[in-house]
Amino acid sequence: MSRDERAGGPATAATPGATGAPVPAFEAISLTRSYRLDGGVLVDALRGVSLRIGQGEFAAIVGPSGSGKSTLMHLLGCLDRPTSGTLRVNGVDVATLDDAGLADLRNRTIGFVFQSFHLLARTSALDNVALPLVYRGVSRAERRERARAALEAVGLGHRLTHRPSQMSGGEQQRVAIARALVGDPRVLLADEPTGNLDTRNGEEVMGLLERLNAGGVAVVLVTHDAEVAARARRQIRVRDGRIERDT
Amino acid sequence: MRTAEALRMAVEALRVNRLRSMLTMLGVIIGVLSVVILVAIGTGAKNAVEKEIAGLGSNIILVVPGQVGLGAAPTQSRLDLADVAYVRRVVGDPSKVTVAVNSGEPVRVGRVEVFATLTGTDENMPHVFDRPLRRGRYLTETDVDTRRRVVILGSEVAAKLFGDVDPIGRQVTIAGVRFRVIGVYETVGSTFGVARDQEVHLPVTTAQRLIGLPRINGIAVGASGPDEIEPLRRRVVAALDARYPGETFSAVTQTQLLGTIGTVLGMLTGVLAAIAGISLLVGGVGVSNIMLVSVRERTKEIGLRKALGARGRDILGQFLIEAVLLTTIGGVIGILTGVGGALLIQAVSPVPASITWWSIVLAFGVSAAVGVFFGVAPARRAARLDPVVALRTD
């Protein structure tokens, strides 16, 4: 299948040591993003962000609401395109990709975890987790096998046929993490992953993310919770569309 | 994404909103159902009329005075038996020319009275028309020449007057005159509303005396083959025009009748199908409407799918397949109920219905096309959704 072949490019380029210096997971150069609101008012959500996040890093993007951190995450997640500037994801300049290419990059390189889980209701945990593989053209049998393995990896091997409504918030978020993992991405992008969870479940999810990071997957958290951000090794503080501090 | 996968997702989505899917389908079902039934009735009517005309006999030319056609004024006949003899000479084969004098009279046997169509004709009638006898004999030349008071009864007249008794040799009274029954026709059904089983045939000369006028209503000529019809028709009309300059005579052939009636009924079928097609169109609008609602409701799902790697065309395909599935399932149900309905109508009512394969293929094709046509707009809207905005929607 042609998608498989084309997608082989970035994955190979990303392998550290294959071409000498490792390719960073994200490389942003002077990214800007402006929106025109319905009234015609131009809003500059990002005003020139340059950033490098390496393979296997654990970084938190923090900032107050309206700071542009969500916009930044959407750009990093290839859900959106920058107004100007260059963004390379796993070495691929997103400006060179059409929409289908961008979809493919998301599918293979990035795993998303959302604050409100975004699981399909009326669909079993197994089928929810297998969803990214549907768009990769993986056979049904293989999808189910990999989804089961991903669910076992997040400790939900006993919940395969449960629907989201039959699970706790913590369990739902773990299903979402399994879904983000099932396609073997280079990066997990987590947008307020603990925002809808109580402390215990939040702690569990953070522990899971840390474990996954230890396994080699880069994790980029977006949060305004200082405590959550403190768990990351690197903190990128965004304010008024610019990076204020990067430690 | 594979088609099988898209199909599975579409089935799942339709199942989740079962009632809504059913109601949306209903519009398509009713549209397809009415197309199938109305085309079946139109075709059935056409077949029935064509069978009637063919049942007259083959290669017949009917010559009548005046114009034949809708809106043409009826013409007082000026033709008489001398003209029949003249047409016989023109045609060459006298046995292929016969005559008709028509009148309606009550026919009585004892106390039983039946109103019948009296047709005065001659010994050549069976050579031109297809009119088998059940019992007895046809008219002879002698019957005509000597104005014999003999009749041949249509099967219905015979049954009403005599019941199970054999009428041959028995007497009937028409306008006070006694006639002897010499034959009974087989049942042949009706042509253009003329119930031919209610006819009573008698010698043309006898009929003229009974009516009191020496006129005849029409001359029928039998051609020897289909290719002979048109030249013969022209010859006969030209001969009559020459004999009576300034007057019009019409000669109608079965082919003309079939052609005219076929065209009219074909148009009727077309109009019926078009009306039914409109309801199918309305069903399609319903599909479009529901798909738009569905896209709006599932904005978040679409955003998520896109985030997970669905391309625009994956989403387009998913919603298009859903719409087409809705209309084709509706189409199949509509075809099945339509065929069932047509068979039921045929079984319980006198309306003839004939199911044609093309109407079924057309109905299915159109319902699938309706799905594509009315599904494209909502599916494109879904495919174009911005994942960022879609994910943010609550």
UniProtKB/TrEMBL annotation, chain A:
CDD domains, per the entry: ABC_MJ0796_LolCDE_FtsE (cd03255)
Stretches assigned to the ABC transporter domain: 26-247
One term under GO cellular component: membrane protein complex
Organism: Microbispora catharanthi
UniProt-recorded name of the protein: ATP-binding cassette domain-containing protein
Entry keyword annotation includes ATP-binding: yes
GO molecular function, one term: ATP hydrolysis activity
Swiss-Prot/TrEMBL keywords: ATP-binding, Nucleotide-binding, Transport
Stored PROSITE patterns: ABC_TRANSPORTER_1, ABC_TRANSPORTER_2
Organism phylogeny: Bacteria, Bacillati, Actinomycetota, Actinomycetes, Streptosporangiales
Keyword Disulfide bond among record annotations: no
InterPro entries: AAA+_ATPase (IPR003593), ABC_transporter-like_ATP-bd (IPR003439), ABC_transporter-like_CS (IPR017871), ABC_transpr_LolD-like (IPR015854), MacB-like_ATP-bd (IPR017911), P-loop_NTPase (IPR027417)
Gene3D superfamilies per the UniProt record, alphabetical: P-loop containing nucleotide triphosphate hydrolases
UniProtKB/TrEMBL annotation, chain B:
Topology of the protein relative to the lipid bilayer: Multi-pass membrane protein
GO cellular component: plasma membrane
Record's subcellular location: Cell membrane
ABC3 transporter permease C-terminal domain location: 274-387
Domain (MacB-like periplasmic core) ranges: 21-237
Transmembrane segments: 21-41, 264-295, 316-345, 357-377
Protein family: Belongs to the ABC-4 integral membrane protein family.
Name by which UniProt lists this protein: FtsX-like permease family protein
Provenance organism: Microbispora catharanthi
Lineage of producing organism: Bacteria, Bacillati, Actinomycetota, Actinomycetes, Streptosporangiales
